[in-house]
């Protein structure tokens, strides 16, 4: 079998460490992939390219169609555009899939039955990047919601639920206030839901919805929502399930897919071999499923679960009485 | 002493029940107030007034300057504007103050040390109500942030922290994406924070900030944030602290102030004498402090705490082994 070619970005901050650890594991598991490293992020930004992506990286991405990306640092300042957002939008990665599962008793959480997948619209909303200063004192940002955007993500959520045997899709919006934009999202959800009589559906206002998710996450199965709400509630689910450091995500488009951790580049702990590679590793598991190597993905996932069960924990989830040994990034990967 | 005149709206759904229960308690505690009932909400909407407020209610509000308001039902449909938002904006109620405190072991919560005050900007952001359909498929909503709006709410938060002996103010924004609008909020926060060297300050991105609030609320003291973020995180804090049914809020302007529960009108349980009046009661406690009757407010608050400690619980917080007796709205108020 010819290996599947993948564009790999080492990232900034803790990126290179967790990418190194993850690739070592994929290699040991026998993943049939060929990596092509691309430069993205800080180095590119600081070379004067405010997009953070050099032309040859674009070329490698367009050719390989699969990106495996460690977290990136975007420099402060109005001139620099978020690379994540540029990639998601330029490549049409309309769906951001974020599964979160508690691993009690191995990883501390108040919510042993948390098992939720957040399906986040990934191109529109306040992330459209349309912002301006209208007068000296008045600043505005445009929230954009389109019917095709809503249809695509809502349908994706129901298809996902069906494919993975999930029972319910919950839509979260704020359409008691944004009757036109969020109202459209809700309306499209209702329209499409009737095509899936085998899947339950419900809609909640984002304020009480995210509150209930934080208090009783076991009541949620699949959640579909707009970009910014999805950004917020996926961090909530991940953090109350153990840590944002544990979760990976898949950014899916019609031609290209990108896999990444949901957390940032954590420059404060970079280079110390203490970061948790689990988020990127779980992103790799999704990637392996996506490229038709799910048996190897399962092997990686099981090895990861076994390591956590045996109590080898990185500092972020280490807890006396639950953990057996506090390990660094590389030692965790070796286990 | 002449009694303080207050415009009182009975509200819709569970509104009349919890208002009746609350006024009974205020009366028993000796609150020196004179109530003038005004019509707001469903009845007014359905009479053809799409604002939900009749002219004579406006007059009573402008005259009394204090509104005590039970939850309102806004009818479905694009024509009807949210009354809450209309009141907040028309009356310049720029600050929405939402204290949340866990009452473990009397009220179940995973977070015994939760004690946070959320100070939410109350007029701007996506609540500006500027929304339109640009083409058949493209819908837009404008997020508005102004410098005076940011200055006013941030200063309010630091003054509040100082007045109530609180140690830290946390600002939450998404300025890695909205560099201009949320960037302004963050910038103004930093400018004003230096004027309060006695109060610690920090800024967090709303995704990880709300996740940390949900996972470790004891790390937060006062939080200041924009309107929609504040809407979401105040429901989160309230729900993980026990129930959204427990919390009241103060909407403060330069001339007028409005006090209300943070929850909605819950039409599904209306008229059954099972709703928890605690949210509205806590709003009343804030109102009493506001009108210079804080001794009576303390008395009410202590009676409420004592009732909870004795285990008289409404159905929403009832839990076997913690509660002693499940009581209805009126029986709870009588206790
Ligand atoms: C880094 C940031 C631009 C990004 C986002 O807001 O989407 C991150 O929070 C995420 O969730 O992937
Ligand atoms: C009812 C609704 C308009 C309101 C809001 O969004 O502000 C409510 O959720 C609140 O928090 O007071």
From TrEMBL, chains A, B:
It catalyses: D-threo-isocitrate + NADP(+) = 2-oxoglutarate + CO2 + NADPH. Keywords: Glyoxylate bypass, Magnesium, Manganese, Metal-binding, NADP, Oxidoreductase, Tricarboxylic acid cycle. The keyword Transcription does not apply. Its cofactor is Mn(2+); Mg(2+). It is an enzyme of class 1 (oxidoreductase). Coiled coil: none annotated. Its EC number is 1.1.1.42. Residues 5-335 form the Isopropylmalate dehydrogenase-like domain. Belongs to the isocitrate and isopropylmalate dehydrogenases family. Homodimer. Catalyzes the oxidative decarboxylation of isocitrate to 2-oxoglutarate and carbon dioxide with the concomitant reduction of NADP(+). This is Isocitrate dehydrogenase [NADP]. It comes from Algivirga pacifica.
């Amino acid at each position: 079998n010819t290996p599947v070619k993948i564009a790999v970005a080492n990232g900034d901050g803790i990126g290179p460490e967790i990418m190194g650890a993850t690739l070592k594991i994929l290699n040991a598991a026998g993943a049939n992939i060929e990596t092509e490293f691309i430069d993205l992020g800080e180095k590119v930004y600081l070379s004067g390219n405010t997009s953070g992506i050099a032309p040859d990286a674009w070329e490698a991405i367009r050719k390989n169609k699969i990106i495996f990306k460690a977290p990136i640092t975007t420099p402060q300042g109005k001139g620099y555009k978020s690379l994540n957002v540029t990639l998601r939008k330029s490549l049409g990665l309309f769906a951001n899939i974020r599964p979160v599962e508690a691993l009690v008793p191995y990883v501390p959480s108040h919510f042993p039955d948390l098992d939720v997948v957040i399906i986040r619209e990934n191109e529109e909303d306040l992330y459209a990047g349309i912002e301006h200063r209208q007068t000296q004192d008045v600043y505005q940002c445009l929230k954009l919601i389109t019917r095709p955007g809503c249809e695509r993500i809502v349908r994706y959520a129901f298809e996902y639920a069906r494919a993975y045997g999930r029972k319910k899709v919950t839509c979260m919006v704020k359409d008691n206030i944004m009757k036109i934009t969020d109202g459209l999202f809700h309306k499209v959800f209702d329209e499409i839901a009737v095509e899936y009589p085998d899947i339950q559906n419900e809609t909640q206002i984002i304020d009480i919805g995210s509150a209930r998710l934080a208090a009783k996450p076991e009541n949620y199965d699949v959640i579909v929502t707009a970009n910014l709400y999805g950004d917020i509630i996926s961090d909530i689910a991940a953090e109350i399930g153990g840590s944002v450091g544990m979760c990976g995500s898949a950014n899916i488009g019609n031609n290209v897919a990108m896999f990444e951790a949901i957390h940032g580049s954590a420059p404060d702990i970079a280079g110390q071999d203490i970061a948790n590679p689990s988020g990127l590793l779980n992103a790799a598991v999704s990637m392996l499923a996506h490229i038709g190597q799910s048996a190897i993905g399962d092997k990686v996932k099981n090895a990861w679960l076994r390591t956590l069960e045996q109590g080898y924990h990185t500092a972020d989830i280490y807890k006396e009485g639950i953990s057996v040994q506090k390990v660094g990034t590389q030692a965790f990967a070796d286990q």
